[in-house]
Design brief:
alpha+beta, HIT family, subunit A, 10-stranded antiparallel sheet, 24% strand, binds zinc ion
């Protein structure tokens, strides 16, 4: 077991024992209710998780962010929350509001905004050092509840349908060079690009090329996206979900049609989080399709970017 893995396992052990909030919330996460919806070859789960209200309904507008104390800065964290160092640049924390049976938050040591460019290499080093975890990144308007403080998250493997079924999904490889494959996946409900390679630097380099091709919305500083990455026996795998919208229309709807669901990487990976019981009970396959079609880019938009990426590849 890698050193970081071992330190994190020990951290987790001690936090769920000594920190009341973590103890309570991790006890509950094993018994949360789920429903399964099948989309062709893959099953998506809906998880009823009231503890996630704090994140799903987080106010992330500039003013609200300015008015609150940053909960990822060391000086504002609860004294019970302990940390493990990662490469001198990040800290690994136990997330006290878990979705996964083991759920980590990995903030930068400095209070600096959520921005992925230049950090995919770090993300992959992390996936190598925590190889029993899936690492994920939520863009500032794609599910991050602290868009002002850079952070990754991690959840144990064997939980997200995306990671569990990745090998058997139908991949359309559009670029393949020695040691790296890039493509899209035709039988996955959310349009995505994947990168697969033994060489993390090759992925980091190609990711920046993709990044440069994604649409940047007005008044934004990065293209909207969620990223899920892990290391398997042979390769690093990176899945990039370009996004079109922060929250679906049903999030803002009044009355019966309201569904409080604010999609992030975990949702893209196949576990949709509903903090309210009414939404968990009533959500339908059609609602899920509608939400995905609003917050993700379309397959045809994805193909257009793929065509341009093919050109820069040559
Ligand atoms: Zn901060």
């Amino acid at each position: 077991m890698a050193t970081l893995s071992k330190q994190v396992a020990e951290l987790f052990q001690s936090q769920v024992q000594d920190w009341e909030l973590a103890k309570e919330n991790y006890k509950g996460v094993g018994s949360v209710e789920t429903r399964t919806f099948s989309f062709g070859t893959i099953g998506f789960l809906v998880q009823y998780n009231p503890k996630r209200m704090v994140s799903s309904a987080a106010k992330v507008d500039a003013r609200s962010i300015e008015e609150r104390e940053c909960f990822l800065c060391a000086e504002n964290r609860p004294t019970e929350q302990k940390a493990v160092d990662f490469i001198g640049k990040y800290e690994v924390l136990v997330n006290p509001f878990p979705i996964f049976p083991r759920h980590l938050t990995i903030p930068d040591r400095r209070h600096t905004r959520q921005e992925i460019s230049g950090r995919i290499g770090d993300m992959l080093v992390l996936s190598e050092n925590l190889d029993e975890y899936v690492i994920f990144y939520n863009g500032p308007k794609c599910g991050a509840s602290a868009p002002d403080h850079f952070h990754f998250q991690a959840g144990n493997k064997g939980f997200l349908p995306l990671e569990k079924s990745f090998e058997s999904l139908s991949k359309k490889v559009f670029a393949e060079k020695t040691g790296i494959r890039i493509g899209t996946i035709s039988d996955y409900p959310c349009p995505l690009f994947f990168f697969e390679s033994q060489d993390k630097y090759a992925i980091a380099q190609m990711f920046e090329k993709l990044y440069a091709l994604l649409e940047m919305k007005e008044r934004e500083y990065e293209p909207m996206m969620n990223i899920v990455a892990w290391k398997n026996e042979a390769n690093f795998v990176v899945c990039v979900f370009p996004r079109a919208q922060h929250r679906p229309d049903c999030f803002f709807a009044e009355g019966e049609s309201n569904i409080l669901l604010s999609p992030a990487s975990v949702d893209m990976g196949g576990v949709l989080i509903t903090p309210q019981e009414k939404d968990f009970r009533k959500i339908t396959e059609n609602d899920i399709r509608q939400i995905i079609s609003e917050v993700c880019v379309s397959s045809s938009q994805l193909e257009k970017v793929a065509d341009r990426l093919k050109i820069t590849w040559k």
